[in-house]
Amino acid sequence: MRIHSLQHEPFEGLGNIELWAKKKSHSIKRTLLYNHEEFPETSEFDWLVIMGGSMNIYEEDKFPWLKKEKEFIAKAIADNKILLGVCLGSQLIADVLGGKVSKNQYKEIGWFLISLTREARNSSIFSSLPATFTAFHWHGDTFKIPHGAARIAQSEGCANQAFEFGRVIGLQFHLEYSKKSIDLMFRNCCDELVDGKYIQTPDEIISKMGNVPEMTKILNLILDNMEREFGAGV
To answer: Could you tell me which of 32, 55, 62, 158 has the fewest CB atoms within 10 Å of its CB?
Structure first.
């Protein structure tokens, strides 16, 4: 398959999604929005992956390309492409589908438990996952579940952590992060590591880096399931 990613920051790339794609011999192209690159035609890809970023989806005055990005995402959905949004990417998709994005009660930064909902049991993408698993988080906003979408996951600090809408998946949490990815977040977003109920210290985060291999297994399972269930329609 032809995978295209939208990247909002130099330090927020595909991470372990890229390793999975290369093992599967899928092609990868990118639009680097921070370099003001143009969007491709939707006919040029099968699967759109929308990554995270430090900006908010409603900061269109500061980041004018956000408006065009939302229009592009809407076109990709209308054209029946496979979509996966991560963190900011999931919020952008939710907004396009009518799910309001706003500040969450808490910021979540660090390793926190994800619990699947009852709706996840009926999903061909998520039903094979463990009922609970640890994921990495770095966000302050949250989305409402779009009308017609299934609410898939939650955490103690954030009620809406994932949704599924046809061939569209939104994940508020990060499964794609490697140790290098987390180090890059430390280097670029360390000012966000303040005291908070769901904000871990750098030492806490580093001490739990052993979670990465299991987290990557969960990521690969979701991607395998998406490839199997949605790829046939490409």
So the answer is: 62
Alpha helix (H) residue ranges in the chain: 16-23, 65-78, 88-96, 179-189, 202-207, 212-230
Catalytic residue among 4, 164, 174, 227: 174
Residue 57 has pLDDT above 60, yes or no: yes
- Give the list of residues 6+ apart from residue 140 with CB closer than 8 angstroms, or none: 103, 104, 107, 108, 192
- The whole-angstrom separation of Cα 33 and Cα 5 is 10
- Is 174 annotated as catalytic? yes
- Tell me the HSE value of 183 on the side-chain side, using a 13 A CA sphere: 4
Per the CB < 8 A criterion, the answer to whether 48 and 55 are in contact is no
Catalytic choice (9, 12, 69, 176): 176
87 tagged catalytic:
yes
The single-letter code of the amino acid at 51 is M
List the beta bridge partners of residue 189. Answer: none
- Dihedral over Cα of 214, 217, 219, 222: its sign: negative
d(CA 102, CA 105): 9
Residue pointed to by tokens 């969960």: 218
Q: What is the mean pLDDT of the chain?
A: 96
Q: Which domains does the chain have, with CATH numbers?
A: 2-233 (3.40.50.880)
- The rounded distance, in Å, linking the Cα atoms of 233 and 69 is 24
Catalytic residue among 9, 87, 119, 139: 87
Alpha-carbon distance of 202 to 214, in angstroms, equals: 20
The CA R_g of the chain, rounded to the nearest whole Å, is: 16
Query: For position 233, what pLDDT does the model report?
Result: 52
